[in-house]
Description:
By secondary structure, this protein is α+β, with helices and mostly antiparallel strands. The chain has helices spanning 3-26, 75-91; strands at 30-37, 42-49, 52-61, 99-109, 112-119. The chain has two helices and five strands.
Amino acid sequence: xxxxxxxxxxRTGRLGEELACKYLRKKxxxxxxxxxxLGFCELDIVAEKDGAAVxxxxxxxxxxxxxxxxxxVDARKMRKIEGGAEVFLARNGISDAEWRIDIIAxxxxxxxxxxxxxxxxx
Length: 122
C-alpha cells in the first residue's frame, strides 16, 4: 500500500467517523471524545446515552469487496477496545459507570457513504 492509499484510507475513515457522530447525535447520544489515543489503542468515538458510556468503533468500507465492515473488528481488536474503555473510565473517575462497546458500519451505497448498521453491545 502506497502513501496515497494510506492518505485516502485515513481520510475516508475520518469521514466515516464524522458520519457516525452525526448519526449518533440524531439518536440522542452525546459525543464525549473522538480519536482518544491511549498509545496501545485509539477509541474512535466515546459517547454517552442514558447514563451509560458507549465506546464506538467505526469501520468504513468504500467497496463491496471483502467482509462486512464490522467483521474487521476481531477478538484482538475487541480486547484492545475493552482495555481502552477501562482506562478511559479510570482516568475520568467513573470506573463504576455502566458501559458497552458498539460498532458502526459506514459503507458506500448508491447515495455515497452512509451508516448502514449500528451494532449495540458488540
